[in-house]
Structure formats: structure tokens, C-alpha cells
Write a structure and sequence with these properties.
7-stranded mixed sheet; alpha/beta; 8 helices; 7 strands
Length: 224
């Protein structure tokens, strides 16, 4: 069965660009400046206050993949080893359309926390931009043959404590993408500085790490 591993990166809208009523709504329960800063940072986690700026995808069998990412110029090139293709878009809608075209080819998809974040985010952003999904990213929760969410598998569907991708990778001796010095909190300044390719590289790093965890799950935990 052909399997694709994917991960998304998101970026909050500039807070000042939102209507005053929206700003007031988001900060309604914030009592301190610190709480306001945290709440504004959390905007990147909602499809109602953020957009998709990168989607990394990797074939779990061939380890060939691609990153669809937002930039100020359209371009396409491959990594030095030729296994990863980087495709830049200047429009979020086109980026999403390309994602839906590609994922249709794979019977199974793998994510890390995708059921709670990536999948609903992609579905809602697509709906907002009038992009038609090609498949259901929220299938039956316990059918890993369609969607294998590694975080759900490693927590036994919430029975045990949740840990970050970085923490779990280190526990299994897998190189964490965070070791390169970039975290999700760095995306806003990187985007502002137009360092779009660094965001794309960070995104595929998360995908590769997730693919490694999927391999471990297959070998030692899936029962197959």
C-alpha cells in the first residue's frame, strides 16, 4: 500500500490587519501584556486566524518527497540528492489545490497530531478559499489503514501522556528537526525576512522525522 507522510506549517495573520471587533474578541480574557502576546502567538494554530505557508510530503516507501511552500516568486528545484522537490507558490489557494491533487494518489496518509491539527486546518482553509477537497482527511479515527496519526498511536489514543515531536524523536534516537535551531516560534520572523526556503526545509525535516517514527510503529507496535 502506497503511503504519504505529510506536515503543514502555518502563519498567523498580522494582528493589526484584523477588524477591531475581532481583536477585542481574541484578547477578551487577557489581563496582562504577557497573556496578550501568548494569545497572539496562538493565532497561528487556528485556520480562522492563520494561513498555510508550507506542506511537506514524503512517500514512506521510496523516501522521495516534496515541499509546497509560500514565497514571493514561483519556482521549483530539487535537493542535492534529488529526492526532495521544492515548489514555491505565491498564492495559498494554488498551494492547497496542488496538495489535494497529490494526496489523492495515496491510499494511506501519516501525520503527527494530524487529526487534531493538520487535517482540520487544511479542510477549513480549503473551504474558506473555495478549494474542493479530493478526499476525507478525517476518516474513522481507529482505522490506521487510512490515516495513521503517530501521536495518537504513541499515546494509545490519549491513554498516556502526550509529548512533542522533538521529545519523542530524541527518546527513539531519531534526529529531531528542532536540532537545526528553528522552531515554530521562528516562522513569523523568517517569513517577514522572506527566508521562505528555510521554512520549507524546516517543514520537510518534521516530515522525515515523522516517517522515521512511522517505521518504528510499523515494525514494533502495529501488530502486523
Amino acid at each position: 500500500m502506497s503511503t504519504v507522510v505529510f506536515d503543514i506549517e502555518t502563519l498567523a495573520y498580522p494582528f493589526e490587519s484584523m477588524e477591531q471587533k475581532q481583536q477585542d474578541y481574541l484578547l477578551k480574557f487577557c489581563k496582562t501584556e504577557e497573556e496578550k502576546i501568548i494569545k497572539i502567538q496562538e493565532m497561528a494554530l487556528s485556520p480562522f486566524t492563520a494561513l498555510v505557508i508550507a506542506i511537506g510530503m514524503l512517500n514512506a516507501e521510496t523516501h522521495n518527497g516534496m515541499v509546497l511552500y509560500f514565497a514571493d516568486n514561483e519556482s521549483s528545484h530539487k535537493s542535492d540528492d534529488g529526492k526532495i522537490e521544492f515548489i514555491a507558490f505565491t498564492d495559498e489557494r494554488k498551494l492547497l489545490e496542488e496538495f489535494w491533487s497529490i494526496i489523492l494518489r495515496y491510499p494511506q496518509f501519516v501525520t503527527f497530531n494530524g487529526r487534531s491539527f493538520d487535517c482540520p486546518f487544511l479542510l477549513l482553509r480549503s473551504a474558506m478559499l473555495k478549494v474542493k477537497p479530493t478526499r476525507n482527511l478525517m476518516p474513522y479515527r481507529y482505522d490506521t489503514k487510512q490515516h495513521c496519526d503517530i501521536l495518537e498511536q504513541f499515546t494509545f489514543y490519549g491513554a498516556t501522556r502526550r509529548f512533542s515531536l522533538d521529545f519523542i524523536c530524541k527518546s527513539f534516537g531519531i534526529q529531531s528537526p528542532k536540532e537545526q535551531g528553528i522552531t515554530g516560534l521562528d516562522l513569523q520572523p523568517l517569513f517577514a525576512q522572506k527566508r521562505f526556503f528555510e521554512i520549507a526545509e524546516y517543514c520537510i525535516g518534521d516530515v522525515i522525522a515523522t516517517a522515521e517514527l512511522y517505521r518504528i510503529w510499523q515494525q514494533y507496535m502495529s501488530g502486523e
